[in-house]
Design goal:
Layout: E1 9-15, E2 18-24, H1 48-51, E3 72-75, H2 77-80, H3 86-98, E4 108-110, E5 116-119, E6 125-127, H4 135-145, E7 149-155, H5 171-180, E8 184-187, H6 189-195, E9 200-203, E10 208-214, H7 223-226, H8 228-236, E11 242-245, E12 263-265, H9 274-285, E13 296-298, H10 311-323, E14 328-330, H11 339-345, H12 348-355, E15 358-359, E16 371-372, E17 378-383, E18 389-396, E19 400-407, E20 413-418, H13 419-422, E21 429-434, E22 439-446, E23 448-453, E24 458-465
Parallel strand pairs: 3-4, 3-14, 4-7, 7-10, 10-11, 11-12, 12-13
Antiparallel strand pairs: 1-2, 5-6, 8-9, 15-16, 17-18, 18-19, 19-24, 20-23, 21-22, 21-24
């Protein structure tokens, strides 16, 4: 066997009429997230970079080329829990296409706990024969045939949370199993001459693209010790599988998981209630300066459409998750959505806040990550009883700022954002677009902007900075 080539960036080569993927590891630090927002320039005040601090965002070391933007898709747990089967998964894939959700970026179809029943005599995970009689590979073929991606679930413990086999101490075998569902290798002599290595070019196939890795029955072993082995095992397969760490924020994963996973849960499980959603938003906000392309804070999946909150509360939920650059993983039954649920989940302007824009920089043949204005939004101001009138904000590309007015009080109120809270000089002029009304509401706001917000609702705007007037600093 020749040397294996590790993975980071992707170059496409022709391999005996097949599409061969060569992945090359490239060292270096990602371009600073706030590049272009010079202190005191274009109407920004000296406080701008402090308010939207990204100093804790580090080198992307997972080297799998994924998570340039937060993941979008669907997960089975919030609505179905253990009541899943291959028919539900297939019908969900169909619904993502028919509703137009897939075109908006919801491409991951993620199977949560309960797909696996036992390990066989060889130690291999075995899908539940009653609920997944065709096996996972056949299901992956179906999902990929729709142009979507398939996600699977396991646990960094002896058992999953529903007491199915976990992957602790089985990382290599399980990663190879996940990879075997979609890949076969073909030795390519032309590529060998090109790069001087023995290459096994993957023949395009169907299978798992995403792993959610939970934290139950962990035998008391620290997360920092349990999660890296699966990272290494996934990378050893040669496949790019999105690695979602579900550690529940127990050991502050934002401090270390950027070297391990593509996203990391910062909180315990969400439930379909206002109290849970608001609490989790606050917990996730603490880690805003640590996230960026390659690794994202994960405050858990969306509850929009599950019935436990009002329309306004769900609209706030979706707005804040988008602004926080959280994964947008739908948690309802997409086969049976109300018009209000569809309206929320398909708001392209709010989705654009979450997914942003990429401006690639060419570096030879391989290219690079490029310049990302991908800063997690955060709470920047609060007032009212217990701080229930809140302003959340985050910088976007093109001299724009996303600003959300979130009323967590029990009555309607006016929320105002002063420019000092947003890192703008008081003389700066901005235009304001309402992302829920889909219209421009103000052309020339200076010093502050306010709006009336219903109780438990959230209005979200994009401010575009127009003037370059600023004081000397």
């Amino acid at each position: 066997m020749g040397k294996k080539i590790s993975c980071h960036f992707v170059v496409f080569l022709t391999c005996s009429s097949l599409l061969c993927v060569l992945k090359v590891a490239v060292a270096g630090r990602v371009v600073p997230l706030l590049q272009g927002y010079e202190k005191g320039s274009y109407g920004y005040s000296r406080s701008f970079n402090n308010i939207f601090d990204t100093s804790n965002y580090g080198t992307v070391q997972l080297n799998n080329g994924l998570a340039r933007t937060p993941q979008m898709g669907w997960n089975s747990w919030n609505f179905f829990a253990c009541n899943i089967n291959e028919t539900v998964i297939k019908e969900t894939a169909d619904a993502l296409i028919s509703t137009g959700l897939a075109k908006l970026g919801y491409v991951y179809v993620n199977i949560d706990d309960c797909w696996c029943s036992i390990r066989d005599l060889k130690g291999q995970l075995v899908p539940d024969s009653k609920t997944f009689p065709s096996g996972i590979k056949a299901l992956a073929d179906y999902v990929h045939g729709k142009g979507l991606k398939l996600g699977i679930y396991s646990d960094a413990g002896a058992f999953t949370c529903q007491v199915r086999p976990g992957s602790l101490f089985h990382e290599k075998d399980d990663a190879e199993l996940f990879a075997s569902w979609f890949i076969k290798y073909h030795r390519n002599k032309w590529a060998l001459k090109l790069v001087g290595h023995s290459l096994h070019c993957p023949i395009p196939g169907k299978g798992v693209d995403y792993l959610k890795y939970d934290n139950c029955f962990n035998l008391g072993i620290k997360p920092k010790e349990r999660y890296p082995p699966m990272r290494d095992a996934l990378n050893e397969t040669g496949r790019t599988i999105f690695y979602a760490i579900c550690e529940w924020g127990v050991d502050d994963p934002a401090l270390w998981a950027d070297k391990v996973g593509n996203s990391w849960r910062t909180t315990d499980d969400i439930n379909d209630s206002w109290a849970s959603m608001t609490t989790i938003a606050d917990l996730n906000d603490k880690w805003a300066s640590y996230a960026g392309p390659g690794g994202w804070n994960d405050p858990d999946m969306l509850e929009v459409g599950n019935g436990g909150m009002t329309y306004h509360e769900y609209r706030a939920h979706f707005s804040i998750w988008a602004l926080m650059k959280a994964p947008l993983l739908i948690g309802c039954d997409v086969r049976n959505m109300t018009a209000e649920t569809i309206e929320i989940l398909t708001n392209e302007e709010v989705i654009a806040v979450n997914q942003g824009e990429v401006h690639p920089l060419s570096v030879g043949l391989l290219g690079a990550w490029g310049v990302f204005h991908f800063v997690e939004g955060r709470k920047v101001y609060s007032s009212g009883t217990d701080g229930c009138l809140q302003v959340w904000a985050g910088p976007l590309s093109g001299h724009r700022i996303v600003v959300a007015f979130w009323n967590r009080c029990s009555k309607a109120a006016t929320i105002t954002a002063g420019w000092d809270a947003l890192g703008l000089e008081s003389s700066t002029s901005v235009s304001v677009r309402d992302l829920w009304q889909h219209k421009d509401v103000v052309e020339d706001a200076v010093a502050s902007f306010g709006a009336r917000v219903d109780a438990h609702d959230c209005q979200i705007f994009v401010f575009t900075v127009h003037s370059a007037y600023h004081s000397e600093i």
